[in-house]
Amino acid sequence: MTARLDPRRLLPSSLLGQVMLVLALGLLVGQAISGVLLYRAAEQRRDVTAINEIALRLITEDKRSAEREAMRAAMRAERGLPPRRMARMNRDGIERSGVSPLLPGEQRLPRYEEALAEVLAGQGLTPLDIVITTRLAGQDPLVVERPRMQRRLGPRDWRERQILVAGIERADGSGWAVVRQPLPPRARGMIGSILLQTLVIFTVLFTLLFLVLRRMTRPLAELTDRVSNFSNGRERAPLLQERGPDDMRRLIAAHNAMETRILALLDEKDVMLGAIGHDLKTPLAALRVRIESVPDETQRTRMAQSIEDITRTLDDILELARLGRSGEASERTDLSALVASVVGEYEDLGERVELGEAPRIALPLRATLLRRAIRNLIDNALRYGSAAWIEIVQGTASASIRIDDDGPGIPEDRMAAMMEPFARGEASRNRATGGAGLGLTLARTIAEQHGGALVLANRPEGGLRAEIRLPLR
């Protein structure tokens, strides 16, 4: 099957790219409209020039013809001669004809006829009919017979010249006056001028807009990176420099104030957590010493176990609270060696923990945190099942640490809720089996700290699969 190309992938995703694209489309549309308007204006000027030339020739010929005919008629009358027959063609190239000049198959041009009628009416001429058409000079019988007219059209390409043939039927019934007028040539270089104008506008506007947008988007990109990486490190980075337009400066200033306040709150939280941890663990340690004086061994064991549970729960809570402010820096670590070291710890304790395929993959990791996440998932597998099977799977964009067990699994509708703090399952996953409901929450948070995710799924053959997915980078 042929994969369909998503049109959204062809569009720029950045603010700068999108604004530049909109500008380019707007300029193209604007220049296209401008080009059409300029072309239509040029065609109108061309038509007006041709119609005015035809009207001028007709009006001039009409006046001269009337004067000449009157003089000739008077002279011939004095001499007793009969009236002279009208010539077929006068010196101005105006043909006198008894029929319309429209040849079979030719189309009339109403817009030209209306324009000529308007011009003639302004000069007091109202013909019975006006007929205008276009034809090639080489197809006009009169032009073919008249070398003088051919020379006016051009000595070489006169046959390909387009001419307007205009005929007016005189109101006095004397027939048709036919004018042949070459259409003025179209203006040369108009398209090139429009393209050059578009190129100049593109260059000027693109340069100016690019400089302005870059001034706006560069601090915006820095602010985006700062917000994205805010929780990655414990060390305080210098505040962002306030630059760019006023709106951007105010945004950066507001972010700097917010960041300063958040860091102060986190510092206060760390101090408070340290105090809580110290104040709670000290009496717990004292209780652990005092229960040694309890004579009943069974009661003493139960009390010791309760203290251990409280201590472990307190450690989990403090660890979860400190994850967002971990002071451990990422180091490039062999993922297979890290997982193998954790598995080795359980093997030394005699637990059924097996390591399968583990290709060597070097990733930037916080080793201590990731070990904690793997231990939590293995503890869950052993707590609710009889064994744990671990393998590392390398994909195209991520590497996965898979931990499978043979326990009862988790209902599908409870899968997401089980990763929330203090969430525990039903009969098979309750406090009686141990845990405070923080193991999966810690593992998920640690995976997200590495830019990955924790994915839970029930295995078809039974049991649960917990998978830490880490991006390859």
Main features:
473 residues; alpha+beta; Heat Shock Protein 90; four-stranded antiparallel beta sheet; 11 strands; rod-shaped; EC 2.7.13.3; kinase; histidine kinase; cell membrane; HisK_dim/P_dom
Give an overview in words.
The chain is rod-shaped. It has helices spanning 7-10, 15-79, 110-122, 141-145, 147-153, 190-228, 246-290, 297-322, 335-348, 367-384, 439-449, and strands spanning 95-97, 129-136, 162-169, 176-182, 331-334, 353-355, 362-365, 388-394, 398-405, 453-458, 464-471. It has 11 helices and 11 strands. It has 473 residues and is of the alpha+beta class. A 5-stranded mixed sheet has the order 6-8-9-11-10. Strands 1-4-3-2 form a 4-stranded antiparallel sheet, covered by helices on one side. 52% of the residues lie in helices and 14% in strands. Mean pLDDT is 78; it is low at 83-88 and 426-434. Among the domains are: 15-182; 328-471, Histidine kinase-like ATPase, C-terminal domain (Heat Shock Protein 90).
